[in-house]
Amino acid sequence: MTDMRNFLKSYNTHAANANNEAVTIAWNYYTNITKENQAKMTESDLDMANFTKVWAAKANQFDWKRSDLNATEKRQFEKITQLGFSSVNDTAKIELKSNLEAELTGIYSTGKVCLTEFGKGCLELEPGLTDMMANSRNPNELLAAWKGWRDQTGKKMRTKYTEFVNVMNEMIKFSGFNDTGEYWRSWYEASTFESDVKKLYNELLPLYEQLHAYVRHKLKNKYGTALFPDTGHIPAHLLGNMWSQSWSNIYDLLTPYPNAISVDITQKMKDKGYNVTHMYRVAEEFFTSIGLDKMPTSFWNKSMLEKPANRDVVCHASAWDFYDGEDVRIKQCTSVTADQFLTVHHEMGHLIYFLAYAIQPVIFRRGGNPGFHEGMADIVSLSFQTPEHMHAIGLLDSIPNDKESDINFLMQMALEKIAFLPFGYLIDQWRWSVFRRETTPNNYNANWWDLRCGYQGISPPVQRTEQDFDPGAKYHIPGNTPYIRYFVSFVVQFQWHKALCDEIGYKGQLHRCDIYKNKTAGAKLRNMLALGSSKQWQDAMQVMTGGRNMSALPIIQYFTPLIDWLKEQNKEENIGWSAQCPSNIPSPDQTNNQARLSVSTETVCLIIVTLT
Ligand SMILES: C[C@H](N[C@H](C(=O)O)[C@@H]1CCCN1C(=O)[C@@H](N)CC(=O)O)C(=O)N1CCC[C@H]1C(=O)O
Ligand SMILES: [Zn+2]
User: Fold this and answer.
1) 347 lines ligand 1 (CB under 6 A)
2) Which residues fall inside 5 Å of ion ligand 2, going by CB?
3) What is the pLDDT of residues 220-271, one digit of tens each?
4) pTM
5) Ramachandran quadrant class, 197 (left: phi over 0; alpha: psi -120 to 50; beta: rest)
6) What whole-number distance in Å separates Cα of residue 26 and Cα of residue 331?
7) Could you give phi then psi for residue 122, rounded to 5 degrees?
8) Which of 56, 147, 309, 344 is the most exposed place for a label (fewest CB within 10 A)?
């Protein structure tokens, strides 16, 4: 027994060092994309795979399953002996997987789109193309950015991604999984996980359908019905976001009551002279106000909070744990916008989780499940965006209490949280089907768009073929980060928000609850966070909510006032869209002619005005 306990202590010390080394080498690549740093990361991946194998073999020398170790000690052995991709003995496969992932992430992170016909020069995704998708109201410009990004990223990844899927599936077989998707789903420790999320999606679909119908109606008013297919889909490039996953940036086209109060966080931040550092200080102050940790000094010295001028980096924001209980970092090409401010809170939420479970043995320094980590990253956003909180931090002059302003606020939240649900759900529906070989390279893109049209009710603004590889235009596909975690997060964060608001005795409407400065709320949250993955997530859920399962009821309760309003607005609307994508999608040259025509029309008008 003591030798097993000594083994666990020894593992813990070695694993902390091994993880710290591996994360540092990965950090060097992600903050400086070079062939040399990629090679070092591949070397490190080989070392990590070897470390995992060696220590799993040592662990299995003990008859730990039949020992009288306690449940938590046995759970440590169980996790130490889970080999994942490391079980394969063929180092060539480990190297291939590592290089493909680095190259795919590199293609994504260095993609540039030259929009000379719109006088924009060559733009990177952040901030150039992201800002354009958010702020342009010119459909031709939006189409050029939307198509250009897919041409410069996904289109260049198709062959590598096919290889990537094959090598991952070959490797994971050695750990007893049929395919990579089955391995990824095993992290949720529930044999019914796939049907559980499907059930949640169906419970939430009515909310999304109402929002979709309202937004489609408003966008038709703005852009004219000619752009919209008669199948009920919304063209993907009009929703303010490169992937149509969050619609907050087109709120100005959707405002329910323009004469009532709306919170324009971007403008307010600019008015108040916010800079990047201040955004992080404000986010940190939220967490400390509820009794959670402040950022260690090393965070400020070692993070990459702005895009460096002189080298290629992976700009997609991320949170990094260096497994020494103190060194936690954010890598983000931060700019002063509302979206970015939310991401700052998101990434810092991950860091708060890292710091809270640093008390755990290294093998347990993970979220209760990956969706829990994302839920913690987002939970503060439900308090932080309330008019109450905006007023508390000086971004709103007074707290509006009229019905119209309340609907305006709920609309803003729905454009962020309801709009996301089908997107969060479908990414891994596609990937799981690829790993299962139900989706194969000759229908990668067709199946992707079947899901995008079917679940999201959006359509491609220009014809797509199997020369394209649109999944590759979304970070998590080349970056190989599973995505169902975000769908889980968008459900559980509302369960936790309700639980925290109940705990602090809040009696108002859930969507106006702000846990800011409430130490009771922070203490309850910390109790769950500190568990890490030492317990099954259902136990952690019980700590937070008293129940053991995911539930759609809190998010439905939160948005009910808006859904009732939307049903009123949508009385004349055909709710929903056809399951298949529209058949009459314009071809690229048709859209080019449209673009030339619209530019020339503008020019002609200008000449007439000048001549008269
Ligand atoms: C902007 C955010 N970046 C991810 C995140 O923070 O989750 C990054 C990249 C992938 C994993 N990751 C991490 O930082 C992990 N190390 C966190 C952990 O430790 O588990 C992101 O991708 N988001 C936020 C909302 C929806 C989604 C999107 O933008 O589509
Ligand atoms: Zn996250």
Assistant:
1) yes
2) 374, 377
3) 999 999 999 999 999 999 999 999 999 999 999 999 999 999 989 999 999 9
4) 0.96
5) alpha
6) 12
7) -105, 120
8) 309
